[in-house]
Amino acid sequence: MTPWIGTAARLATGAVWLVAGAIKLPDPYESITAVRAYEILPEAVVPLVGHALPIVEVAVGLLLILGLLTRAGAMASAVLFAIFVIGIASVWMRGIEIDCGCFGGGGAKEGAFEEYPKEIARDVALLLASLWLVWRPRTRLALDNLLFRPLGRDPERNDDGEPAQEERLRQSRAGEGSHSSAP
C-alpha cells in the first residue's frame, strides 16, 4: 500500500509543478512581476529568479512525474514549497495584498487576504507530500525502479523490503499449522 501512496503523492505534486511552470514559461515578465510583488528579494536578483523559477518548476515536475531521481526532485519540491509558504505568510503579515503568482499572474490584487489561508494550506499539503517522497522515494510506475535497482535485492522481498506476496502466503500457511491446540 505504501508505494501506491507515494505514487499518488509523486504524480499529484509533479503535476502541480509541471502545470505551474508551464503556465509561466510563455510570459517570463509576468513571473518577474510576481516575484517582485513579494518585496523580499533585492531588485538585482528579481529578474533572475523570475526567469529561472518556471524552468525549475517544470524540471521538478518532470522528475516527479517520471519518477526519475525521485528523492532529489522531492527535496527540491519541499524546499520550494517551504519558501512559498514563508513568502505568502510574509506578505500576509506585512499587509500586502498580491496574487501569489503560483499559477501565473502576480502583482497587486485586492481581496488577496482571503485567499492566503487556502494557498498556505495547499502548499503545506504539497510540502508534506514532498517530504513523504524524501522519506519513501520508492514508488510504483517510476523510472527509478528500472534504472536504480537496490543492491543486494532479496528476491523474496518487494521494493519496500516487505516480504513478497508469495513469501507472505507461505508464512501465513506455515502460521496456520503452528497454531494447533495441544490436548
Write the layout of secondary structure elements.
Blueprint: H1 2-24, H2 28-37, H3 46-66, H4 70-93, E1 98-99, E2 107-108, H5 116-135, H6 143-147, H7 165-178
Helix pairs in contact: 1-3, 1-5, 2-3, 3-4, 4-5
How does this model look, in words?
- This protein has 183 residues and is an all-alpha fold.
- The protein has 2 domains: 2-148, no CATH class; 153-183.
- The protein is built from 7 helices and 2 strands, in the order ααααββααα.
- It has a two-stranded antiparallel ribbon.
- A hairpin with a 7-residue loop joins strand 1 and strand 2.
- Helix 1 packs antiparallel against helix 3 and helix 2 (28-37) packs across helix 3 (46-66).
- The chain is elongated and about 65 Å long.
Amount of beta strand: under 5%
Biggest beta-sheet profile: 2 strands, antiparallel
Helix amount: 55-70%
Low-confidence stretches: none
Count of discrete domains? 2
Number of helices: 7
Q: What structural class do the secondary elements suggest?
A: mainly alpha
**What gross morphology would you assign?**
elongated
Rg result? 22 Å
Q: How many beta-strand segments?
A: 2
